[in-house]
Write a structure and sequence with these properties.
The chain has 434 residues and is α/β, with parallel strands linked by helices. The chain has two domains: 151 residues, 3-Layer(aba) Sandwich (Rossmann fold); 263 residues, P-loop containing nucleotide triphosphate hydrolases (Rossmann fold, 3-Layer(aba) Sandwich), CATH 3.40.50. Helices cover 40% and strands 16% of the residues. The chain has 19 helices and 13 strands. An eight-stranded mixed β-sheet has the order 8-9-7-10-6-11-12-13, sandwiched between helices. A five-stranded parallel β-sheet has the order 2-1-3-4-5, sandwiched between helices. Helix 2 links the parallel strand 1 and strand 2. It binds adenosine-5'-diphosphate and magnesium ion. Adenosine-5'-diphosphate binds next to helix 7, strand 12 and helix 15.
């Protein structure tokens, strides 16, 4: 909920037909027709035992098996207090006995602590159409009058996250290196981990490097064929098959692992990955695509379709040329999308002649999202132990950098290029020399 007064829903609601369209929304009567709810996080703040109980029961329903539901006591004020120091989930449900200005005021407080993409369901005591319209125009996704039934809540969640009219749930972030070995895969795994653990929002990490993928090693998983099966059965991939192929790595992180074997060669059609990405996007808030360093019809297709592209490079001449070519080509191919984001990695390898960071950046007309120093002990230990960097050393500045990148890519922090100048690579290098 970005701003109570100007939410995207507000625009649709200004006309008189502001009631939900019965033809498009799921109505509470037909619970049997409700599809399983995707991997969304829902937190409820209830004032009465009756509403709490309904949420607890809803959480147990088979259709909610993939969703994460937490029920708290206390209404909007408890939610405001809670989220002052915690990231907001996909959906917050709040129960309130207030109405009119008092309710609007409380909700404004909630809006201030809410991330932009978080949806809000209000459960109130008053059956008042004017108030309903007012709340919807202020960005509340739905207003239900207590007492509520399980079916009411499921219908709201379905209308927000399952119905095609509400758009896809998930965003895809594609990672590719400017040159093999730049660290693109390692960074993509750590960002998937950071998003899923910090924001407790579900992430699917798709390892698309069929021959040499390392996500299974870095996340300490047994070798499986998730990604391969998803691509080779593309015509029948749906949410049920996808669920079977996902390997759970942490509470909110699942992996589509690459086979990482050379039993066959891997040549794909341009659209080979479209279906699996589409299905994954309908089921989870974030899909991280770890692409091999290749320029083929299918890698280009995945890069074109992604919501965000992250390039990883280290500062030598080949990386500079490739980064420049990739940036120019991606801007040409995706003129209406955000520019690719750049991470400079492995900066400061001892004795290796490097292009100075500012000289590297000069021809690119792009400030990096992060500059990560060469830290062989840290990365080597993490890789050998099948750990993420933050598991190996949570307090290391690189762990903080990954958190910042996760914030930027999820829109929880604004990427302000001029601020990145504050990033002092010399400080990091100095630290290394100690
Ligand atoms: N900042 C860094 N410092 C030291 N080693 C790194 C750093 N980033 C990545 N590495 C290591 O570099 C190697 C190549 O990384 P990888 O992620 O496989 O690259 P890519 O996917 O771009 O080919 C891995 O062994 C990884 O642990
Ligand atoms: Mg890689």
């Amino acid at each position: 909920m970005s701003n109570l007064a100007y939410d995207q829903n507000g625009k649709e609601i200004q006309s008189d037909d502001s009631q939900p369209d019965e033809n498009q929304t799921v109505t509470p009567e037909n619970l049997e027709d409700i599809r399983p709810i995707p991997r969304v996080t829902i937190q409820a703040f209830c004032e009465t035992e009756a509403v709490s109980q309904v949420f607890e029961m809803t959480a147990q329903d088979r259709r909610m098996a993939k969703a994460h539901v937490k029920v708290h006591t206390g209404g909007i004020s408890a939610a405001v207090e809670f989220y002052a120091n915690a990231p907001t989930p996909n959906l917050i449900a709040v129960e309130t006995s207030k109405s009119g200005d008092a309710l609007v005021e409380e909700l404004s407080g909630l809006a201030e602590v809410c991330d932009a993409e978080t949806k809000v369901l209000v459960i109130g005591a008053f059956n008042d159409i004017v108030m309903y319209r007012d709340l919807i125009s202020r960005g509340v996704s739905e207003y239900l009058v207590a007492p509520v039934k399980m079916a009411d809540i499921m219908a709201v969640v379905t209308n927000i996250y399952v119905n095609p009219e509400s758009g896809v749930l998930g965003r895809t972030i594609a990672f590719i290196g400017a040159k093999g070995g730049s660290g693109s895969s390692t960074i993509s795994h750590n960002i998937a981990w950071a998003i899923s653990s910090t924001y407790q929002t579900d992430v699917v990490l798709a390892d698309m490097d069929f021959a040499f993928g390392t996500a299974n090693i870095n996340l300490d998983q047994d070798p499986t064929q998730g990604m391969a099966e998803a691509v080779y059965s593309a015509d029948r991939v749906d949410d049920i098959l996808l669920d079977r192929l996902l390997e759970k790595c942490a509470e909110h992180l699942s992996l589509l692992a690459a086979p990482s074997t050379l039993d066959r060669t891997y040549d794909f059609d341009q659209k080979a990955f479209n279906q699996v990405i589409e299905v994954a996007q309908r089921g989870v808030p974030y899909v991280i695509a770890d692409l091999p360093q290749q320029w083929t019809s299918w890698t280009k297709e995945v890069l074109c379709a992604a919501d965000e592209v992250v390039l990883t490079a280290y500062p030598d001449l080949t990386n500079l040329r490739n980064t420049k070519n990739l940036i120019d080509k991606l801007i040409e191919l995706r003129p209406n999308d955000p520019k690719p984001k750049l991470i400079l990695n492995q900066v400061g390898v001892p004795k290796r002649p490097e292009i100075n960071v500012s000289d590297f950046l000069a021809p690119l007309d792009l400030e990096p999202m992060a500059v990560i120093p060469f830290e062989p002990a840290l990365f080597g230990t993490a890789a050998n132990n099948g750990q993420m960097i933050s598991e190996a050393d949570a307090k290391h500045p690189v762990s903080e950098t990954f958190d910042t990148i996760a914030q930027i890519l999820t829109g929880k922090a604004e990427f302000k290029p001029e601020k990145s100048k504050m990033f002092d690579i010399r400080a990091l290098l100095k630290r290394k020399k100690k």
